[in-house]
């Protein structure tokens, strides 16, 4: 009944919303598109209502909460396969030793050796004012520029357009001369503003086979829009309003093995559709009902921005609220449902985060099924949003402390649950070049929504990934001094640092809020960038390496470094840059390639690595990947862009 009541409100032709000290006039409703579903009053733009409580799940702790240090001490410890990691012990500050961990490489002895350090990472302020708060962020291939954008609905940012024309606001025809989208050079910080006409608020996206961003949905006049950004010095947004059959606000876009895109859900639309080719339009006939999104919808939603990943078998894994299924995209049928994940809601607005764990390939790969696992961390109870946003005084419930891991290629797969060192919601999960996962950003209490979270979680946490699922460990890293709450984002950079941006808990650009709208951009150097490990950083000789490869093809990457290289200490991974927003990293994917041959000393201090490309697009959808060569667990100086093609 509540949904009918609120749904009736949005037939009003005009809505006034008070934001940032101004009255915003909203234009006519776009029939069949996401707009203000669930609208409850002039101070709420993206709110929900209701909910129920799920009690805590008891699990064993697996957290290391040792104080961080800026030094570079190392640890010497040899582990057997399957043995759990122990506590950190400091070694000689000037020594670099090795640790033997679970098989990652498959190059012969079943082990890979990596240097281990107690360095807890370091932070640097990269850009003082990006102009926009990075609600959405993605690293674009080849040009090495970070695309950041927020929403046009605010009609304001921290940067003016360099000149006319200004955007004409739909319905009022007033001028909006502020920047809402930028490209930032990740080395120099140079910013190029981009013009937007159709609202990108809470949109989705993915890179196509040629590295272009194809973005879908958003708010109001942008909810049914497809927009494309190509890779050139003068390229701007190409916008195609009306291209989608349903409005897609808080929806998730996934790339299939043949390069097509699907987009799922969004407020008020428990459906999905295939994204049409450029310039074409879907109709309602192209929209497919998806009852799973009806079933997982709490009174306060808790199933927006579902976690969606392409499995290595070509099926699509979909997680919403606390349930997950496999969907066959060809027959459009659910072929399997996994066990319920207990302990609250994981999707927006109780906002946990998730990632696909590394896909591990062997040399001359011939397995019928390549294992593929997901990791889901944090979130909050089902009624966290109702308590924080709808109740007065606000109540900020504690976030979840657990992570859960599941092999999505096994029909009898069950969740393996482990505790983080601290509670976290609104966080982000970065799959690092080594295969480990960095959990960063977020809060410890509350939920997603305007001013609905407290207690910033300033410390990143490192999750150690091992292929057999045992011996994993959390390590608390050094904190930032900038809270990154609701609407934070990240990008893994070619030099293996992490770009950190965004955070806006306010409906507009506010400087005097408890958590001001954040336009500063940081870089975080993880543990493997300990200066004492710099000797292990290899250099990829791009001009002597293959950077356009067909599936299954063998190809060569040439590296140069200091001294003799031990093949058993080498690891080569490829990484697909994700579209990051609201704690979800769409299409983030890291694949470890099998090393077929290692040819030493083809020139002084120079070696050739012969690799095999992934066998098909279900393992690695076509397009651009960042190729990293890791030696002793330390990434190369600069990754190389490689394109996988059918």
TrEMBL record:
Residues 135-528 form the Glyoxal oxidase N-terminal domain. Residues 545-643 form the Galactose oxidase-like Early set domain. Residues 1-21 form the signal peptide. Keywords: Signal. The keyword Transmembrane helix does not apply. The keyword Signal applies. InterPro entries: Gal_Oxase/kelch_b-propeller, Gal_Oxidase_central_sf, Glyoxal_oxidase_N, GO-like_E_set, Ig-like_fold, Ig_E-set. Gene3D superfamilies: Galactose oxidase/kelch, beta-propeller, Immunoglobulins. Pfam families: Glyoxal_oxid_N, GO-like_E_set. SUPFAM superfamilies: E set domains, Galactose oxidase, central domain. This is Galactose oxidase-like Early set domain-containing protein.
